[in-house]
Amino acid sequence: MREFIYYPGCSVKAGGKHYEESLLPVFKEIGMPLDEMEDWNCCGATAYFAVDEFMAAAICGRNLSIAEKEGKNVIAPCAGCYLTMKKSNTFLKSGHEKAKKILTDLKNNDCEYKGSLSVIHPLEVLTDDIGLDKIREMVKNKLTGLKVACYYGCQVVRPYTEFDDPDYPTKMDDLMEAIGATPVDYTAKTRCCGGSLAGTLEEVGTGLNYVLLKEAKKKGADVIVTLCPLCQFNLEIPQNKIVAKYKEDVRIPILYFTQLLGLALGIPKEDLGFSRSIISLDKMWAKLRNGGSNEQ
Amino acid sequence: MEIQEKVIFEGDLDSTFLDEIKDKSFSDEINRCIQCGTCSSSCPMVTYMDYTPRKIIAMVKHGFKDEVLKSFTPWLCASCYNCQVKCPSQIKITDVMYTLKREAIKANTYPSKFPIPALAQEMTKLIAKKGRSSELWLVLNMYIRLKDPISPLKYTSTGINLMKTGRLSLKKEKIKNLKQFHSLLKAVTEEKK
């Protein structure tokens, strides 16, 4: 079994705290406790690539070197970190002249990177390394009747397509099915939430996310589950503004897939960051109590 | 009414622009664009753009350097890579957009009042200084750069919601080994000269 070191990224230490709060107990429960990388730096996100792509690769190289010293692959829960580090890793291993120069700079600054690692998303570890059969065996509370819309966003499924299908991935849906929930046919699952644009351009944020919420509601979902702190933020935060603008009640809880998985594994709900939800979860709790019925 | 000539003649275009962008984005495939428009139809941001992605590629191919580097389009690319995986000619369109952003910053032709390039540059500055990003301070730095004290007020309710749920951090994050980090950045910068 591959070994992993945990790269949190800046978002799960701030607005996306409940991702880390649910991810770590889940991995502990399945017998693969995650240690946080020592003194990691920001991956640079999409911003650094827009300003200086070689510097972006260099700062990711520093993180990769820390992980390599431990002999462990990097597990990155944020889609932005995942792609940025994966892209930089691919570039550093490419043999390109500029890549070789950056590797030399890394070496000269006590962070040599030999290029032995992979960057992995926790969802891949759960479905591919651990396997759904093992997870099915470990489920203590089946989430029977809970209808979930699985939202993958962009950067985990594109442009590297080995993770899953770039348009209609199913790994998260399969995981949700394994814990007893019912995934709905969510065709908007890889439509963009706007990324870092949504927070700064309000019109863009409400426009793109209205489509995502509306489709989930239409398909009868009780919650949307996400795998990225920026997607979670963009789908949840503007909901009241969207309701006011489009005169349509599209409010729906936006959770992390690790929160529902933790619940199914029998981890107390107080330990999974549910209190950080801004949208009320009352209907979801009632439905789970009643085994999928909407009656209170 | 003043009559203005709207046609741009070949002599006004920059014939080296295509090679420059191909080289910098590692995308030799730009030549192969068949103008099918799959990129524009798959783009979630296209309705906000001044030139569609298809047009941008055509303009890069034919040397409309000034127009392209002043355009909002690259800055409205959210890096969703939908066009890139769908392009029948395998053009790395998202990577081309990144190159155009960098070139626009270098040429100082980017829309300076627009929040996105301000956000990218402030985030880069913050990371280069501290090794980490801190959401709240990044947003504040961006509005200071834009000299816009009004827009942040629109986010009051967001701030309150985040504070109530313990998701707003006032801490300025930084890494421990800043000396090593800064020395690495310096080495990479010097090489480019």
Describe the structure in your own words:
The complex is a heterodimer of chains A (296) and B (193). By secondary structure, chain A is an alpha/beta fold. Chain A folds into two domains: 4-120, Glutathione S-transferase Yfyf (Class Pi), Chain A, domain 2, CATH 1.20.1050.140; 132-289, Rossmann fold, CATH 3.40.50.11810. Chain A has helices at residues 17-29, 45-51, 53-70, 79-92, 97-108, 122-138, 171-178, 196-200, 202-218, 229-236, 239-246, 257-264, 282-289, and strands at residues 4-6, 73-75, 119-120, 147-150, 182-183, 223-226, 254-256. In chain A, the strands form two sheets. A four-stranded parallel beta sheet of chain A has the order 5-4-6-7, sandwiched between helices. A three-stranded parallel beta sheet of chain A has the order 1-2-3. Chain A is globular and about 60 Å long. Chain B folds into two domains: 10-106, Fumarate Reductase Iron-sulfur Protein, Chain B, domain 2 (Orthogonal Bundle), CATH 1.10.1060.10; 115-192, no CATH class. The mean pLDDT of chain B is 94. At the A-B interface, α2, α3, α5, α8 and α9 of A face α6, α7, α8, α9 and α10 of B.
A few lines on this structure:
With 296 residues, chain A is an alpha/beta fold. Chain A has helices at residues 17-29, 45-51, 53-70, 79-92, 97-108, 122-138, 171-178, 196-200, 202-218, 229-236, 239-246, 257-264, 282-289, and strands at 4-6, 73-75, 119-120, 147-150, 182-183, 223-226, 254-256.
Blueprint of the fold:
The complex is a heterodimer of chains A (296) and B (193).
Chain A: E1 4-6, H1 17-29, H2 45-51, H3 53-70, E2 73-75, H4 79-92, H5 97-108, E3 119-120, H6 122-138, E4 147-150, H7 171-178, E5 182-183, H8 196-200, H9 202-218, E6 223-226, H10 229-236, H11 239-246, E7 254-256, H12 257-264, H13 282-289
Parallel strand pairs in A: 1-2, 2-3, 4-5, 4-6, 6-7
Helix pairs in contact in A: 1-12, 2-3, 3-4, 3-5, 6-7, 9-11
Chain B: H1 17-24, H2 38-42, H3 53-62, H4 65-70, H5 73-76, H6 82-86, H7 93-106, H8 115-130, H9 135-145, H10 156-164, H11 178-192
Helix pairs in contact in B: 8-9
